[in-house]
Amino acid sequence: MVARLLDPRPVIRRLGERRSDLARLTARRAVAAPLVLVAVTVGAFILAATSPLEPLAAHFGDGYERTTVAERAAAAAALGTDLTWWQAWWTWVAGLAAGDAGFSHSYRQPVLEVVTQRLPWTVLLSATALALALAVTLAAGVAAARRPHGALDRALAAMAVLLSAVPPFVLAMGSVAVFAVTLGWLPVTGAAPPGQDPTLATLARHLVLPAVALAAGQVPWMLLTLRRSVLDAEASAPVAEARARGVGERTVLTGHIAAVSWTPLIALLGARLPELIAGSLVVETVFAWPGLAAATVDAALEADFALLAAVTLGASATVLVGTWFADCLLLLADPRVRIDA
Fold this sequence. Notes:
Elements: E1 3-4, H1 15-50, H2 55-60, H3 69-79, H4 85-97, E2 103-104, E3 109-110, H5 111-145, H6 151-164, H7 168-182, H8 200-216, H9 219-234, H10 237-244, H11 249-261, H12 263-271, H13 273-286, H14 292-301, H15 305-333, E4 337-338
Antiparallel strand pairs: 1-4, 2-3
């Protein structure tokens, strides 16, 4: 992560210097990323090898007890469950390099087909939730910034603290209980009514509840971060000097406070990516959303280690790229920031 200078009068660095930092940051992350991904995938295969779940039982289903030793041995050889974890890992890496991520026995499809079919749904849900969370945070932050420490500011901060203590599962189930069961305003599961292909209208209605539930878990942290940044900007010397010169309050708010208050959100978005991924696991499961996160839960329950390995690799790569991108944006957007890692 990049670190903000702690000097109360930070050096405003030129764009050329920041671009140099950007190149060094990218080079360091490019060297570290493969090592991280290797460590994550090795850890995933070690955990799979020590798991109490039996992949063959999930593969055969109810007929597992009736299978012969020869049938189980043949299935184990076909699925690769008879290999040690390092043999299984190397075989998987070699297949991945050739464009083969394995076969998902829980979906009876190649893993890459499962991923390509379900990834767009997860991206749609996550992007919608993130956009909604940003919109709510910025609107609430602007409203509270007009009167720092006022009644609205304190009320929003208290609500954010309370909401941050609520687990994503409770938020999801609570939204179902209120808006779907009690009021009957919105559908509960899937991306379309049963037996129908999704249209733009049905997709929008089915997207509301899961997107709101996922966004609600992100808003508190964003709002509290923005509030702290606004309060720091309010107490800064440039803002005091601008007001002393008779600059209008609207100009002070938009030109001085807002200009420096939004940049911490960039760093926060990169740091909170893992939680967004974890939240999508819960939300997609509760709302039966046809995304990749829900497929991950199914794969874990079915001991589908091929799909779990691919999803673990993809999630880790997403976090690495997301944090790198957020740090790059922060370096370019805020001239007070220097490289730290």
